Amino acid sequence: MPWTEIDTARLPDGDVMTLRRNGEAFEIRVGLYELMSSRNPVSERAMAALVVSRLERPIGHALIGGLGLGYTVRALLDAAPLACITVAELVSKVVDWNRGPLAGLAGRPLDDARVSVFAGDVVEALHANPRGFDVILMDVDNGPEAVMFDGNRPLYAADGLALVLAALAPGGIACFWAADPSPGFERLLAGALATSERHDIAVEGRIGHTLYLVRQDG
């Protein structure tokens, strides 16, 4: 069955983001590259389960960097019923799609009163809320080894990591999604004043994606 283009969005750098559908499957692409797909949202759900299992208290306020197809928001809503969730999304069309053709994928999470959308870069949301979040889930790109947008590259460098950690409340936890393991990012984490864990997530019986869990020391 051929893919059908549903809509497009022009990104700040001039690239075009495309929403496509093939039967029950949806994907968002940038140029020739798949950015996200509805086919196997295993790792997005694993992010939510992981932070809930590791945090030593109920989640009060959470930040999700990147709305995607809504799976991470839904998973955190289900796993942390007391949480208020801020979702930072730079591309307004992605929000529109999640309220339109993509809404049913994850059970319309943006309709939940516990969810608010921050229309802007996740960096702005982090700067605006020092020590403001119990958990931060970073899913804004394809990870440190496969960054698609140069503007996101600093998030996986020392200053970006420090910014994320500074936005965590004491005892809080951050989780970074990555398409592939990143030795460079692991070296950065090892040299930071933080405790980190790497979790490889199996997708269809093979290692699909990697999650990095980070907790600030002290």
Automatic annotation (TrEMBL):
PANTHER family: BLR2883 PROTEIN (PTHR43317:SF3), THERMOSPERMINE SYNTHASE ACAULIS5 (PTHR43317)
Residue ranges of the TM segments: none
Record key words, sorted: Polyamine biosynthesis
Pfam families documented for this protein: Spermine_synth (PF01564)
Identification of the protein by name: Spermidine synthase
